[in-house]
Design brief:
With 192 residues, the protein is of the alpha/beta class. The chain is built from 5 helices and 6 strands, in the order E-H-H-E-H-E-H-E-H-E-E.
Length: 192
């Protein structure tokens, strides 16, 4: 699988507790989550510049930026400030959603394997039109992103990361910076 030079995997920002709204797909960001989302463009750009990479606005101007999200409101809304700052629309992709595994078990393994494989298909589709030096940003769930990283490790795209890949280990609003050419994953802390 060919991925662009920079892939940012963003766990959606804070959105209250599961069950706080009738339809979990429509659960909005809470006040903390809105602050995290608003800070995301500057936070990510600072991390990219610190690592000698291109700012997201420059990637967007070159047509080398794709923003993709699970269609759950909290995932899309996490990227809205980034979309506004770059002028790039958000592509919603059900393959990044945390619902719908058809394989279930009591220990979660088949669920995670299916979520990861499905998310990998979404990642591949989202990055298909990007140039090699492009940037792909994906906003998804704490259950999906670790499963996706595990698939990338299994496919040899990444070396096994030092980061804890359990679903709850990735804080809400945090970003994983994937550098496929170096087979590396870096943890960027969540914005305050």
């Amino acid at each position: 699988m060919s991925l662009p030079a920079t892939v940012l995997l963003v766990r959606h920002a804070w959105a209250g507790e599961r069950g706080s709204v009738a339809d979990d797909r429509a659960r909005p960001l809470d006040a903390r989550g809105r602050r995290q989302a608003a800070a995301l463009p500057g936070h990510v750009d600072a991390a990219l510049v610190e690592r000698g990479r291109t700012r997201l606005s420059a990637c967007a101007a070159a047509g080398a930026l794709v923003l993709c999200a699970s269609p759950f409101l909290r995932c899309v809304d996490t990227l809205v400030p980034l979309a506004s700052a770059t002028g790039v629309g958000i592509v919603e992709d059900e393959r990044f959603a945390e619902t719908g595994p058809t394989t279930r078990s009591t220990d979660g393994w088949p669920d995670a394997a299916e979520l990861g494989a499905r998310a990998e298909l979404g990642l591949r589709a989202a990055g298909a039109g990007l140039p090699a030096d492009g940037t792909l940003v994906v906003s998804a769930h704490g259950e999906v992103l670790p499963a996706l990283v595990a698939v990338l490790v299994g496919r040899g795209v990444l070396d096994p990361p030092a980061a804890d890949l359990t679903a709850k280990a990735m804080p809400k609003g945090a970003t994983w910076l994937v550098t496929p050419t170096e087979r590396r994953l870096e943890v960027l802390p969540a914005p305050a």
